[in-house]
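Shipment paperwork, digital attachment
Item: protein structure file
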Amino acid sequence: AAPGLRPQGRRINYHVDVEAIGNDTIFLAGTPETLDLRARILYRSETGGVRVAHPSPQGLHYDAFSLLEDPPETAPVLYPAPILSLASRSLYLQLPPLDRRIAELARSFAAGSANDLERARAIERRLRSDFGYTLELPDRETPDPLAYFLFTRRKGHCEYFASAMAVMLRSLEVPARMATGFQSGIYNPVSELWLVRASDAHSWVEAWIPGHGWTTFDPTP
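Attachment content:
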């Protein structure tokens, strides 16, 4: 950030040890501001993902300092306000041919909402409250898995919820994308460490909220 424009908010220092699993991804909390890592090259994607050029046979070990995300309802509006380019807006509004009921459902969920933040919260809330969570896969393939999830089965795992919310937001002209990573984990009070396993993998949604930029939403119950 330019001098005097450092974003306000909560920050955290943390150390990460990743087992040697042939992984090249750097897992980070929030938005990293500093990263202390023994690596010749780091790659950063357009969406903010960070990875090393080659996974280490000894695993990855690094320290980071990150800005944590506060809910937009309580976080101050960023200044200067982030701008989503026209090319990115077009990209994150793209949709395949959809069952027309999906857009109708999105409009019904967001009815009465005054802005994009309220629309996103309304869809997040309805998916959390009206649908069920299960790790069991459907017993048969369907030509339209999203419509089957929303109108027939009405239960699924996090990828169903995240893709449903992202698609419904795009149908309302709100730029949205799926994000994947890890959540939760188990805290060990003796070692004062969090243990995060593959079973903690999770998918959620990022929507572009004016004044705040990419903002996290999690529609999974």
